Amino acid sequence: MPKRILTGTVTSDKNEQTVTVLVERRYKHPLLAKTIRSSKKYRAHDAKNEFKIGDQVRIQECAPISKTKRWEVISA
């Protein structure tokens, strides 16, 4: 099964080798036919500490690295 790839914005880079990425998705409500924005934060592995707050990054699923990290940054 292919790994999921998501695009989001870095909201925190305070932890060592970890960035928090806010991924926003838009979908149409089935009954109201209104466009809804929902967002979710993912903690991703950034081995070189190269990404800073505000960067647009792509993250990919990976094997669990820690209790909360299951994603890794693949590109800016």
TrEMBL record:
The family database entries (InterPro entries) matched by this protein are listed as:
NA-bd_OB-fold, Ribosomal_uS17, Ribosomal_uS17_bact/chlr
GO CC annotation, single:
cytosolic small ribosomal subunit
Give the HAMAP family listed for this entry: Ribosomal_uS17_B
Which CDD domains does the entry link to?
Ribosomal_uS17
Q: Which GO terms fall under molecular function for this chain's record?
A: rRNA binding; structural constituent of ribosome
Query: Know the name of this protein?
Result: Small ribosomal subunit protein uS17
UniProt keywords (A-Z) are: Ribonucleoprotein, Ribosomal protein, RNA-binding, rRNA-binding
Which protein family is named in the record? Belongs to the universal ribosomal protein uS17 family.
One record GO biological process: translation
Protein function? One of the primary rRNA binding proteins, it binds specifically to the 5'-end of 16S ribosomal RNA.
Task: Summarize subunit and interaction data from the UniProt record for this chain.
Answer: Part of the 30S ribosomal subunit.
Organism classification, top ranks? Bacteria, Pseudomonadati, Pseudomonadota, Alphaproteobacteria, Rhodobacterales
What Pfam families does this protein map onto? Ribosomal_S17
